[in-house]
Amino acid sequence: MAALDTPAGAKPLSGRRRPRVTGAAQATIFAVALILFFTPLVASAAFGFTLPGKGFTLDSLDVAVQNTSFLPQLSSTLQLAALSTLASLLLLVPTLLFLHLRAPRMLPLTEWLSVVPYVVPAIALVSGANLFFRNMAPGFLVSTYSLVPFYMVLTLPLVYRTLDAGIRALDIRTLFAASASLGATPLQTLARIILPNLRASMLGASLLSCALVLGEYALASLLLHSTFPVFMVQVGMNQPRAAAALSFLSIVVTWLLLAALSGASAKRTRKSGPARSTRQTSKDLPTQESTPAEQSSATKGISR
Amino acid sequence: MTREAAEVSLTGISKSFGGRVVLDRLDLTLDGGELLALLGPSGCGKTTILRVLAGLESPDAGTVRIAGRDVTHTSVRNRGIGIVFQAYSLFPHMTALENVAYGLRIRGTSAGKRTARATELLETVGLGEHRDKYPSQLSGGQQQRVALSRALAIEPRVLLLDEPLSALDAQVRVHLRDEIRRIQTQAGTTTLLVTHDQEEALTVADRVGVMLNGRIEQLGTPEDVYQRPRTAFISEFVGAVNRIPADRFGAQVLVLGRRMAISNAAPEALPATELEALVRPEDLELKGAGDGPGVIRSLVLRGAVTSANVSLGGSMLRVDLPSHEAANFTIAQRVDVSPRHNTALVDGVRNGAEAKEEVAA
């Protein structure tokens, strides 16, 4: 779409210097940010993958992976991430669609409610949940999967906002009305029109939710569950090099995962384009005489 | 496209939102195949009528009939209507072709048939070569043409146009409204157009209904509404108008030294003084006269016509005359102004600009 803004071949003659200056500034800021960002990562990788006098080695990883519950922990954490994300989407997509269609006045309230998890610290959530469940349903907190509802609460602000923004970008009332007038049932509209257009924001929400769950430590450890972050902290206590190596690897893997997710959503967006970026250009239409509509509106004043 | 044109009737429709009456026992009938435009300021209830007819709003009271069948409680998708919305109604993830074919796909029409039909419709609106573009790659005018094709693809019995041109540039608007008229005539579909643009209504529609405060003030041909407005509100809403001080003598009124018949419903009920006659700028005539009471203050070229602003007796009058005739006049020239016709609509003198809603009986 950017091609529309500057006609192809028409090179900007002036303003040649300004972009270069801002370009240099951009590059500097970008480089500084990258250095600040990568230094700790590279340092932890250097610490984790080297041994004094031995140079590069994977020994520390071996120590961490062998004779430990590395794989079960990893897979249970991945499952938790997938389940929490799926459950959040299943809960929030229909809820938000309902709110936007039928109860738009509730939206400010629900938006405010969605930030409550930011306000309530994890420790408060856990002690409250502990008090409640240990008395009412002692069996509930035993399973690792009991973390799912907590993670849903934890990721609520991010997931809510991402989905809400996606829905706001569509005029879903009009889309529903248009689809209904063409003979579609509400379910058909949901499946064929609304969900495909929410794909990008649903992927975005999943991305944030997964990232949060994969790195969540406080809740899991306070509820005495062993997840991958908890495992890493435990490993780090007596094998700091292994923990450094593992955390480096897990960051890389998480990144790849997120990149895959956002890559998928970007591909989608590129295909269908931003929903309403087009401004009217009339270049495809023959020139008309000046419109009398303007005239009469311009002269309305004289009637009073 | 040779489906029998359906007659539409709305009887006694009332609708209020949160205690505010939007429609008040409104009756409206559309003849088969006609294009009826509802014209009115925002908030007058015209869009609510369209939404009631579409089934997007259910009326508090009243009946909606399409082709004789009571559809008051029928859902939108079973009414056999096509709707073109103001904007942003195309499905963003589908190409123009897929958008147009969507209704047929929902009905289970085979892929080959629906592609053929959609292609044909897109060619009708001149978008044949854009069929594989996504809505975001089309201009606003093109998007509305796709929306029109999409609405027509299911061969609706009634076509509803909800301010389809108001989001477009002036030039595209003029072009597209002619095209809508052409396609509507071709398809012969009974059509309701909702608009706040008086020119759009007058140029396109078979009949125009002017709405105010949930009621239809006047329903008639465009000529009727423009030339013989029933109330001062209509007169001012459908075009430019001069308010000229006048005095009443029986059923006549003295305007600029000329007696004119009063076209109001009850002329005898009007007061004798404190009146204003409503005369369109093109219904006034200018004559150069050295001792004339008026003075030309400015001449504004508008293309084929020129507007002369004449100060006369403390008020400013606009007189529209063909531009070639306007060449005979100059600024500061003294002139005589007289009405061309023998009838006029009369309204009480208006105090200040805020009294716009006030309408003479």
Structure in words:
The complex is a heterodimer of chains A (304) and B (361). Residues 1-16 and 271-304 of chain A have low confidence and may be disordered. With 304 residues, chain A is mainly alpha-helical. Chain A has a domain at 76-241: MetI-like (MetI-like fold). A two-stranded antiparallel sheet of chain A has the order 1-2. The relative contact order of chain A is 0.11. Chain A is 73% helix and 1% strand. The longest helix of chain A is centred in the first third of the chain and has 33 residues, at 70-102. Chain B has 361 residues and is an alpha+beta fold. Chain B has two domains: 8-227, 3-Layer(aba) Sandwich (Rossmann fold); 240-357, OB fold (Dihydrolipoamide Acetyltransferase, E2P), CATH 2.40.50.140. Chain B has helices spanning 46-54, 96-106, 111-124, 140-153, 170-187, 198-204, 222-227, 232-237, 323-326; strands at 8-17, 20-30, 35-39, 61-66, 69-70, 81-84, 158-162, 190-195, 207-212, 215-220, 242-249, 252-255, 258-262, 275-279, 284-288, 294-301, 305-312, 315-322, 334-339, 343-348. In chain B, α3 (111-124) crosses α4 (140-153). Chain B is globular, with a radius of gyration of 24 Å. Mean pLDDT of chain B is 88; it is low at 352-361. The chains are: A mainly alpha (304), B alpha+beta (361).
Write the layout of secondary structure elements.
The complex is a heterodimer of chains A (304) and B (361).
Chain A: H1 2-5, H2 17-48, E1 50-51, E2 55-56, H3 59-65, H4 70-102, H5 107-114, H6 116-119, H7 122-136, H8 147-169, H9 172-181, H10 186-214, H11 218-222, H12 228-238, H13 240-272, H14 292-299
Antiparallel strand pairs in A: 1-2
Helix pairs in contact in A: 2-13, 3-13, 4-8, 4-10, 8-10, 9-10, 10-13, 12-13
Chain B: E1 8-17, E2 20-30, E3 35-39, H1 46-54, E4 61-66, E5 69-70, E6 81-84, H2 96-106, H3 111-124, H4 140-153, E7 158-162, H5 170-187, E8 190-195, H6 198-204, E9 207-212, E10 215-220, H7 222-227, H8 232-237, E11 242-249, E12 252-255, E13 258-262, E14 275-279, E15 284-288, E16 294-301, E17 305-312, E18 315-322, H9 323-326, E19 334-339, E20 343-348
Parallel strand pairs in B: 3-8, 3-9, 6-7, 7-8, 13-20
Antiparallel strand pairs in B: 1-2, 1-4, 4-5, 9-10, 11-12, 11-14, 12-13, 14-20, 15-19, 16-17, 16-19, 17-18
Helix pairs in contact in B: 2-3, 2-4, 3-4, 4-5
